[in-house]
Each structure stands twice: as C-alpha cells, then as structure tokens.
Amino acid sequence: VLRRRAELALPWGDPLWGCWGCTKAVAGSPWAGPALGPTGRHSMLPRHMQRLGRDCIAHWNGSQILTLNSPVYSCMRWAGHYPWTAFPFPVSADFSANWRFPQFFGPWRHFQNSNWDLDNFVQSSCFHLPKSSMKSEGEEPLTKKRRLSGQSDTAAPEEEKSFSNQKEALCLSVAQNEEKHRSKKGTVKRHWEYFCQHSRTMKIKNFENKETDQSNTESEAKFDFTVMSYNILSQNLLEDNSHLYKHCRQRLLIWTYRFPNILQEIKQLDADVLCLQEVQEDHYRTEIKSSLESLGYHCEYKMRTGRKPDGCAICFKTSKFSLISSNPVEFFRHDIPLLDRDNIGLVLLLQPRLHCKTNAAVCIANTHLLYNPRRGDIKLTQLAMLLAEIASVAPQKDGTFCPIIICGDFNSVPGSPLYRFIKEGKLNYEGLAIGKVSGQEQFPRGQRILSIPIWPKKLGISQNCVYEIKQQQKEENAGEKIEAAKLGNSQEIVIAPEKLSSKLQHHLNLSSVYSHYLPESGIPEVTTCHSRSAVTVDYIFYSAANDNTAAQPGAEDSFHGGLKLLGRLALLTEKDLWTVNGLPNENNSSDHLPLLAKFRLIER
C-alpha cells in the first residue's frame, strides 16, 4: 500500500500537479490521483520515473495529508516546476524534513488577515525535495525543456484556464481586501539623505512633483544638478554568467522584461547626467538611445574593444548642459602585454547652461574596470590611463582643474589600495600583492608582487597619472625664466627618479559621495547583490569645493570653486536586498543599484 501511495502521489509528468491537479484530489480521498494506465502506473510518467515511483518508499505523515486537504492548497505551486531549478527527484528518505508549511497555515481568519500576495504565494513553494542530476539532457521531460528554452507549455490550455479560474475564485476576495494596504510588491524603499535643509525642501518637490522650486535669484547664483551611475547588466553578460542568478525566476531575466524596468527607474530618478555601464551595443542602438533621447538626453557611447558587445554611455539633459568635447579611452594596447583587456572609459567636458556670466565647465568620466580580482596590476594601469585623460581634458585657462565627477564600476571594495589611491591621491605599492589591490577576495589568490614600475615607459603615462608629454610641457613652462642648460638638467632630475619610484600620485582632490557604512550600526552598504556576493564596487567620486572640507558633505561654499554635495540617494544593506530576493528582482532589473547624487556648482 505504501509503495502505491508513493507512486500515485508523485505524478511528475503533470506540470500543474501542485496546483489544480492536487485540488481535484482534495474532493475525495487525500491519496486519490489521476487514473492509472494499463500497467498500473501513471500514464504520463517517463519510464525512468515510473521505475523510480515503484522503487521509492516515502514516509508521509499527517502534516502532509493535512496540507494537501487544506482549502488554500490549491493556491500553491510545487517548487519542482520552477523553470530555473534542477528537476527534483524523491529519495528513499523521510519527506517530512523537506516540507514546510505556508506562512499563513492555521485558522482561516489568520489566512485572511495575513499580509500576503497572491502572485507571490503562487510562485513560492510549499515544500522542497532534494534535487539530483539527470544522466543526460535527453532524459528531461519535454515540459521542462520548454520552460528552459523560454517557450510556453501549451499542452493543456483548458487545464491552465481551469486552474486560473479556481485560484481566482478562492483567493480574489482576500487579494482585493489586501491590495489597498500593501506597497508595491518586491520593493525596498530608498530615501534621500540631505546635507542642506534648503536642498531638502527643494528636492522633495523636484522628485515627487517633478517640478523645480528654484527662485529666479537662486537660479542666477547657483547651478544644481544630479548625476547617476548605474551598471544596467548587459544581457550577454547575464547569459554568460547565469550561475550568478540562480536565485532569480527565469522570466525576470529576459531583456524584454528587464528594459522597461530599467527605463522606469531612469525616468523616476530623473537625473541630469547618466553614467551607464554594461550597455549592450545592439540594445543601445535599437532601444536605449532612442528611449533616452525622447526623455531629453543627448547620448555619448563607447563600446568595449575586441569582441565585447557592451560598453559605457554618458547621457546628459540638453536643457542643463551642452557638449564641449567627448573623449573615449581604450585600455587595450596591442604593443603592451600588460594591457590585453578590452575595458574602456569615456570622458566628457560639459558646459552648464547657467543664467549668469561664467565660463565654468564640468568634466564627467565613466568607466568599468577589469573584474579579475587577481590582476590588480591591470586595474591600477587602467585607472592611471583614465586619470591621465581626465587631467588632459579638465585643465582651465588659469591652470586649475574644472569640477570633476568620476562614475563607474571599479570592481574594487571600499578601503582597498585602489580605492584609497582614488580618494587620497597617493599610493605606495612597494611589496603589494596584485591580488590585494582591489580587495575583492578575503583570501586573495594573486600573490605575485607588483613590479616597479607597474606599466612600461612606452605607455606614455607618468607615476603622477598624467601624459608625460603634458608633464614635460608643464615643466618647461614653469622653467621659462631658467637658462636652457639648467632647464635640461632639471628635466633629467625630475624624470629619472620616477622610473624606480613605487609611489603613484594624482592631483584631482576627489571625495566619495557615499560613506559605504550605515552611520548608526556600521553595517556595510552594498551596490551589487547576486547569488555569489553582495559588496560595494560602484562609486561616484567628485572634486570637492574646499580642500579642507573635501570629506564633509554640505560644507560651506569655497571661493576656490568646485562642487558641493547636497544630497544622495541612500544605499541598502545586503539584508535589505535579500528581503526582495536580491538582485535582479521583480522591480529592479539589474544586479547593481543605481547611485544618485545632487551637486551644486560653486563658481570661482
């Protein structure tokens, strides 16, 4: 009898067994099942499953029977039919260890009063079974192959419709009762953090009512703008790294579902400047560019070199800025073995549309550095190339730099040597292992020590992260009053020691928009969260208005000019993100969070 029960209770061939098939069984005996075939087995089962049903002995207890007889069981779907999970098999063990009750199991009044969502519960599992690998792909049931290939199962449309009607009749009243009391499904709210009370009043109106509240006097004296950095997750990279998204439902990972969500986020946050990473070229050409242009953006794009199909884009609102120059940076150099990777950067020089007499410009840079945690030497060289390009684009007539904002996915964590180099402007890398540069691995595998210097002389970039031709010209200009012979000697003195120096420098005076830890608890904020990790790798760096208060957001205006941070969109913790099943999820369609900051341009 026990053998027969196990055989009848496991009709694996029926894709809707956990839904309406089991609802039919409730009407009669709890163990009533579909009609048996002529051999006494389930007629829809493949042969290997029929054998498995005969040989499998399962210990069912009263709790499972009670769950099967529950009036709410028809609202449940068995986890075995998730399209992204391995096809499960029963084993000769106690199944009770792999069952779990629905969260509202109990008296009906508790079910009615619980804050549940119909769609969420239909897509959650009532129990889990151990999964096992099949011998070959050919043995997979046809229904699973269709799901994995993205095709819908049309074998029984009438049965699907019947299930839908029964589910609606049972649960519609509860869903209607709860709809007005619940927030949007699968969302975690992010709030603005302000550093100026006036900005708080102005920005709440700007984002909630889509209106600006700047007076004419304010507009004449100040120029406020917002900048977003967002890695939107290239579809090609998603599919090539599917192991990172095992926690996601398959339908949430297709581009036709993801792009409308990404576009909606961009519309809602309404930034004046967008710095996007992992922008797939064909999607950019056919959808992304035209969609953003319809929102008032001008777009500049640089695709990665080689055969990589994605790249970086900087898009700005033409009502706020005009383009002075666009400067792509390719990190691949065929003549330098160290630089054999296809990452890129993009640097724009923008002219603000101010209502006052000024020639101010803003430099916006965007990049996506190499991921490989064991190649810190390549990461530092790529960063130096980007900084050198910024240093060549950002100088003003008086020799100082215009305000600078650098966005991107740096594939480095806060506190790492690479991060400290960006913020502090200096790094002594003598004796530093290449696997420790980015801090991505707790136990780095790359133990080789960085060479001195890291990159060869023919790259043309000095240890000060500027183009050497520019540096020599600057030294010549500074020594115009010195005799020609002395000038030549001074050049040799400056350049020669640099060849053996293990110290990197830059003079951009950069601060980070985010502090990377919650101020109350010290819990780390994260910018990306998937099946393997949840860390911060995305940043917005900016040149602060005052050297002495660079790390103090909202500091007093400085006559030196620069940028003042007025506010930022708060980040989340790993725990926050897993409450909505990590990233991507139903409403956030990238594995990264968008970063958003509001700045004020301080005139000189």
Automatic annotation (TrEMBL):
Domain called Protein angel homolog 2 N-terminal: residue spans: 44-217
Top-rank taxon, per record: Eukaryota
Pfam families: ANGEL2_N, Exo_endo_phos
Gene Ontology molecular function: 3'-5'-RNA exonuclease activity; mRNA 3'-UTR binding
Entry-linked InterPro entries: ANGEL2_N, CCR4/nocturin_mRNA_transcr, Endo/exonu/phosph_ase_sf, Endo/exonuclease/phosphatase
A Gene Ontology biological process term: 3'-UTR-mediated mRNA stabilization
Residues annotated as domain Endonuclease/exonuclease/phosphatase: 228-544
Chain residue ranges for the region called Disordered: 132-164
Signal peptide: none
Compositional bias annotation for Basic and acidic residues: 134-143
Designated name of the protein: ANGE2 protein
